[in-house]
Amino acid sequence: MAIGNDEKRVVITGLGTVNAVAGDPREFAAALRNGVCGIGPITLFDTTLFHTHNGAQVKDFQPRATIPRGVSLKRMSRSDLMALTATFQALAQAGLDPVPEALREEMGVVIGGGAGGLLEAEAFFQDYLCTAGRAARFSRLSPVSCAATANHLTTQFNLYGPKATIMTACSSGATAVGLGQDLIRSGAARAMIVGGTEPLCRMTFASFNALKAVDPEYCRPFSGNRAGLTLGEAAGILILESLMGARERGAPILAEVLGYGVTCDAHHMTAPDVGASGAVRAMRAALTDAGLGPETVDYINAHGTATPPNDLMETRAIKEVFGRRAWEIPVSSTKSMHGHTLGASGALEAVVSVLAITEGFIPPTIHCETRDPECDLDYVTTGARSVAPEVVLSNSFAFGGNNTTVIFGRFREEGVRRG
Fold this sequence. Notes:
Strand 9 (299-301), helix 9 (308-322) and strand 10 (331-332) form a beta-alpha-beta unit. 30% of the residues lie in helices and 17% in strands. The protein has one domain: Thiolase/Chalcone synthase (Peroxisomal Thiolase, Chain A, domain 1, 3-Layer(aba) Sandwich). Helix 1 crosses helix 11 (345-359) and helix 5 (172-185) crosses helix 11. It has helices at residues 25-34, 78-94, 118-130, 148-156, 172-185, 202-210, 243-248, 277-290, 308-322, 335-338, 345-359, and strands at residues 10-18, 40-41, 54-55, 107-112, 163-166, 191-198, 234-242, 255-264, 299-301, 331-332, 391-398, 402-409. It is α/β, with parallel strands linked by helices and 419 residues long. The longest helix has 17 residues, at 78-94. The protein has eleven helices and twelve strands. The radius of gyration is 20 Å and the shape is globular.
């Protein structure tokens, strides 16, 4: 039985990413399949005084390898440049570089983020304090706003459709995907650039160190000796289009966004609700939005931060939603490879979910060394599996109890089959 109707179906036609293990989607798929770890010493700033010195930093980032010479990079932050690089990749794959003039008024941007240009702001104030203001140029503060990335993208590609910036902590990128789907379904747009971007910076690093939420070595999601997350940086971008619009222009269709759910714990500033009610409601809402039952899900891309309470809460939530079948569904956390990229994480893991579908494999959870008796699901700890999932559920459970679940499916003309 097909899900939905063609007028409401939203498909993915392009992917882009810059992260600690890869500079584009093709490299990313290979790194995920091979369990490559991008965690190592941070060189962007001095970490001497912190509990950990490791992070998932994008090494040797060269924006000009992707962004054409004619594009000005002035007053762009590292976060903006990662997003712009990933967007050029995604648009090229979608066959939308350049974006046709007829589409520009019906194409928009939704970006999830957090730190924005904070790395550049930190550098500015360091210069200001060290030189009593003599070496400080206030124009360097222009990319500080988290809204700057969406502004740059709409300006660069001459897009006049809906534009928004989402800030719901670690679920921002996932929520951006869901909002983009809604805008297309409602007829407010025909196509959307959606995703998230997040740089490493001193303030974020200091905050998580102060919370004692970081592992001094590397994150070990669901492992019995897990000791916290590893911060990372990345951009993940997806091109969403109405199925009708993608068909009209003969676009390559990679996968389909089937549905999403958003809930709030209303519980604590940083700690998850150990009862898992918010996570349960997010997954169930996504399944309802997609018109699917729990029996249809083939793979769960977990939030999986490697913080003891979060991994336990997510495990409980999966058991509540999927019942006896919970132990049969492969679950993995790719944060073990690319780190926790905060505002970008939901978007980056959306890219992971699509790659799992298109490339026919389930990525592993690396570093899962010892068994936690309360985390007893199938966490795919012994390498990638050559399994082609039809339906992937991706979780993003953020600080402040901001929960988002997005469901992706293999594209079939007749729609995803139920059961």
